[in-house]
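Hey L., structure's done. Input below.
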Amino acid sequence: MKRAGIYIHVPFCRSRCSYCDFATGAYEGQLAERYVSALTAEISTFKLPPTPDSSAAHDAATGDMRANDQRTDAVCDVDTIYFGGGTPSLLTPAQVGRILRAVGERFRVASDAEVTLEMNPGTVTLESVEKFRACGVNRASFGLQTFDDEGLRRLGRTHTADDARRTLAVLREAGFDNVSFDLIAGLPGQTLAEWSRNMDDALALRPAHLSLYLLEVHEGTPLAEQLRQGRWPQPDADVAAEMYQLLIERTRAAGYEHYEISNFCLPGCEARHNLKYWTNAPYYGFGSSAHSYDGARLRWSNERDAARYVELMETCGAAIVETNELSARDAGAEALFLGLRLMRGVDLTEHRARFGTDVRSEYAADLSRFQAAELIRIDGDLLRLTRSGVLLSNEVFAAFV
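Output:
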């Protein structure tokens, strides 16, 4: 069994970004304290899930929260802990320390574990990041999004480009060598020249890791409504594709490895926690809307609303609201398309040994079609996306869903 990852969801933000559809809300000190108590209680009472063919797993798959009480011994090996959100840096270092102690008491945490804290520029000081580091955080990730202040305003961000630069400087002064930040391409009205300047600014800062995304407009968000009203120009998919090609070229020239569709790093600085998701490793999520996977076939998730999550933990001692037991075929298909997100691709021999599926024969027609379109390449036992396939990856993945 691969070592597991721990995900901690912190649902609080100073304000909600116009494009965001995550489970977040405004920061409230009293709720945050109750939330941390609920989190530590959930962690402290966690037990490993049963095997997928057990009666407890069947109860879980049918949505019976009582199955949580039938789980077996909880202790397992963990080598990544990730605080996501939301803006986890709105918690105090003392609160983050409480959560990490709860994890350490319930799981066997590796001495070299990667412990990541997401933050937004302008939400931390040198004093606070030094305290976060002292309680065990050793990797920082923050949502820079763009170096254009007008673009930040359109996204509803509360920071400026200079705030982001200062945050990175503070992190480095506090001893954080492993820093990641996010950029978004394809913003409304953004030109290729503007994106190129973003690349200049980002690469000049030389972070260890970059996550670079194309803007997705989700229904129900303020940005979707603003675009519908014509307040901003509609995103141009062709220009966004050019931006993606440019970032691949520029990051490669700057010495970054393109190791996953949206992720780039200096050698040896991959996001170890996110690799759990793409390599079918187990991960256990705590907090509102957090998802978990046992590394085999069982998935479950918590109540999405933060206040309701706290109520469930305080009254029931559990907040699982949905469970799903994958069929053997679905588990294999999921591992296949998640693995294809990695530039190294999927080893078909290893996949067959684990899931009992011969991908070449099971998906022969689709593979032939994708090869003819030059979207995939098969080198011996290795199946991977081509550069064109990366741009059209959702079409490839749809064949395995």
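Residues 4-277 form a domain with the pyruvate-formate lyase- activating enzyme fold (CATH 3.80.30.20). Confidence is low (pLDDT under 50) at residues 16-23, 54-72.

-- N.
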